[in-house]
Specification:
Chains A, B: Its EC number is 2.7.1.90. Chains A, B: GO terms for molecular function: 6-phosphofructokinase activity; diphosphate-fructose-6-phosphate 1-phosphotransferase activity; metal ion binding. Chains A, B: One of its GO terms (biological process) is fructose 6-phosphate metabolic process. Two copies of one chain form a homodimer. By secondary structure, the first copy, chain A, is α/β, with parallel strands linked by helices. The first copy, chain A, has two domains: 4-141 and 305-358 and 390-400, Rossmann fold (3-Layer(aba) Sandwich), CATH 3.40.50.450; 156-300, 3-Layer(aba) Sandwich (Rossmann fold), CATH 3.40.50. The first copy, chain A, is built from 13 helices and 13 strands. Chain A has helices at residues 18-30, 45-51, 62-69, 90-102, 114-130, 156-177, 196-200, 225-239, 274-286, 297-300, 308-326, 353-356, 377-383, and strands spanning 4-10, 36-42, 54-56, 105-112, 135-140, 183-189, 215-217, 241-247, 289-293, 332-340, 345-352, 395-396, 399-400. In chain A, the strands form four sheets. Chain A has a five-stranded mixed sheet, with helices on both faces. A four-stranded parallel sheet of chain A has the order 7-8-6-9, sandwiched between helices. A two-stranded antiparallel sheet of chain A has the order 10-11. In chain A, strand 12 (395-396) and strand 13 (399-400) form a beta hairpin. In chain A, helix 1 (18-30) runs antiparallel to helix 3 (62-69), helix 1 (18-30) runs parallel beside helix 11 and helix 8 packs across helix 9. Chain A is elongated and about 75 Å long. The two termini of chain A are 35 Å apart. At the A-B interface, helix 6, strand 9, helix 10, strand 12 and strand 13 of A face helix 6, strand 9, helix 10, strand 12 and strand 13 of B.
Chain lengths: 418, 418
């Protein structure tokens, strides 16, 4: 067996557990010394591969790998960058394969979402075209949970745990503060096209009908002002308050983003997030006091609130990716396969990246309540195990301890990128 | 000794640990059966006292009190309501004392902020005026940390831990995502007049010069667009990204709130939170990609991220308040007194509520860096112990377990409030 080097890189929006995938990949790669030589990372995804901006993971000892696995964000740096189609930009591929060849990369692991699976498919095809011996593997991650072919995406469970905990806690705060006048609280979560994170906040209610969140607005359902406002009013009249989860990407029936159309009391047009727009709409039309929260990066970086299930998924796909690589299974992605909801049982199976690249897995109709303003029991059964379990982690000075991993640069062997 | 009943109530914005104060007050009151009979709560603060909307804590067993102490929000309900001056509204005081007398209330504990201390002072004076035997005690709480006479306010340490953790984690996310173009992240935290929570995010940097937050905007310092933008640009040019913490209440030198003056790229006037305005200002003037987070209620309700120090403070003031009540120390508030920074040592002492009512303790000048854009080492020494320590808490189904306390209504003895 020829010993080749491995290159791992991170792409797209990062998560609380993407580094757990990296740590598991490194650990697993070290268990294949006959097949795998050096284990490198690219800085900022494929950009680092193009720029020959590589780092060496050799200095990470077991303690450092353990710490890395519990560190949010992308320790190698991520990017939002897609390779051009090979025919449009052959020079880009020339450069990429020059870098791979210069460092004898035989295994390429790309840890990302739908777009990254496309990158893997492109690189795999390009390698075959030029006869460069490479095994390219996609490794799933995204808080959006929208990767096709996998029951869920590593990163989602922890962000879902964060969002559901936030709704639970903020809902209790709102209930305390609600006296005579109606009060509403709107939580805006990530999800431009897929409402998985918004749906997950339904877990906060624990099946109680009147518990927050009272309304969930998904991008899968066209936003209807009147139906929504009628429901808000109904809830406030019964409880004195109302909590709403909004996906950032909700749209009206005409396809326009709600965040682009805002209503303030004076009729000014406002630009803002969807949560702010919805909160203002309620205030303008129903007169209730309104609060809104936009956790933004906090929801996908919350290493202090990782789901143990999600962490296990993240590690499993990292380990499986290396096993597939060593087995020469080119152009596949380790996917989570659910075997049972309760007790939750799952396994990992390879899927062809070409079959899933650039697709988007949306919240399916049977997970959405008939009125479009909440989710179903089937959705809850799906979501419940994904946030399960807490992770005991190190703290320092009252904050999570996230030591920076030592990742020295790999000496360059090529002239700078043209 | 005459046995009288005790009435406890919550006021103002609630916190992650206000119920720990309640639990400690109840536990302590039960240890004084000669002095204290029933232990009641008023629903929604002084509003519940006026409405004779009282609940009985007798059904809370030890397990329920333990759970209550780890539950965020105000379990009794809170309010934003100030009593009128007695001369303006004698009927209000007539009603209040009729309720107190109907339930033989001899001890009144009001758990709130600066305004609540004023309520305590008013009730104490009114009781004396009419010869009603009452011991009225103020019990401090506020995430704003702006209560005079106390080294810190219970509730602040946990919100500070949340805000600093959020900046730490989001800062790591931002660093991962920052490639060639500059990126900024703005975290807006609570604080209309006092910048304590914004200052606390400085803990995220752990003393490293280039670590987030790079800039902290406090309401104590007039906002200067040009100086701020110059600093952002400087940071982005060095690091590729910049993180900013903004107090919601920052103002320009002319006294106008920054949140009222927004700049979008097209010159439209926007209404928004201070964080959004500052992020948009950066984007409009420097062209950097911008993200902003507004945790809103999430930051003060984060029972999952309580500071052990803060929890200890919250319990201590609840216990001390009852001890003062039994000792007949009318119109005082238990204050946290710091004895040493490191090791952190503190005690609780009574202060006269009349000396502190309606005052606001701002971040002092020696805690603010000379350029007004960050805090000093003295601030860090003050802040550090307040976020220290994690609390092991029960979880259920992947979310914090917050069982609702059983608080049956006390039968009414009076006709409804006129």
């Amino acid at each position: 067996m020829t010993r080749r080097n491995l290159l791992y890189a991170q792409s797209g929006g990062v998560t609380a557990v993407i580094n757990a995938t990296a740590a598991a990949a490194i650990e697993t790669a070290r268990r294949h010394p006959q097949a795998i030589g050096a284990i490198y990372g690219a800085r900022h995804g494929i950009l680092g591969a193009l720029a020959e901006d590589l780092v060496d993971t050799a200095a990470l000892d077991d303690a450092a790998l353990q710490a890395l696995a519990l560190t949010p964000g992308g320790a190698f740096g991520s990017c939002r960058f897609d390779l051009d189609p090979p025919a449009d930009n052959p020079a880009q591929y020339e450069r990429l394969f020059a870098v791979l060849a210069a460092h004898d990369i035989g295994y390429f692991l790309y840890n990302g979402g739908n777009g990254s699976m496309d990158t893997v498919a492109k690189i795999s095809a390009a390698a075959r075209d030029r006869g460069y011996p490479l095994v390219a593997i996609g490794v799933p991650k995204t808080v959006d949970n929208d990767i096709e072919g996998s029951d869920c995406s590593p990163g989602f469970g922890s962000a879902a745990k964060y969002a559901a905990t936030g709704m639970l806690e903020a809902g209790m705060d709102l209930a305390s503060m609600s006296t005579r006048k109606g009060r509403v609280f709107v939580l805006e979560v990530m999800g431009r096209n897929a409402g998985w994170l918004a749906a997950a906040t339904a877990l906060a209610a624990r099946g109680q009908e009147d518990a927050p969140p009272h309304i969930i607005l998904l991008p899968e359902v066209p936003f209807d002002d009147e139906a929504f406002l009628a429901r808000v009013q109904q809830v406030v009249e019964r409880l004195g308050y109302c909590t709403v989860t909004v996906s950032e990407g909700i749209r009206r029936a005409d396809g326009s983003l709600v965040m682009e159309q805002d209503h303030d009391a004076k009729g000014h047009v406002q630009l803002g997030g969807a949560g702010q727009c919805v909160a203002r709409l309620i205030h303008a039309r129903l007169g209730y006091k309104h609060h809104w929260a936009i956790p933004d990066y906090l929801q996908r970086a919350a290493g202090h609130l990782v789901s143990a299930t999600d962490l296990a998924h993240a590690r499993a796909v990292g380990a499986a990716a290396v096993e597939y690589a060593v087995a020469g299974r080119d152009a596949v992605m380790p996917a989570i396969v659910r075997e049972s909801d309760e007790p939750y049982r799952w396994t990992v199976e390879p899927v062809d990246v070409r079959a899933i690249a650039n697709l988007e897995r949306l919240v399916p109709p049977h997970f959405i309540r008939e009125d479009g303003l909440h989710v179903t029991g089937a959705a809850l059964r799906y979501l419940r195990p994904l946030v399960e379990g807490e992770v005991v982690r190190p703290w320092r000075g009252g904050l999570p301890d996230y030591p920076a991993p030592g990742l020295p640069a790999v000496p360059r062997r090529l002239p700078p990128q043209p």
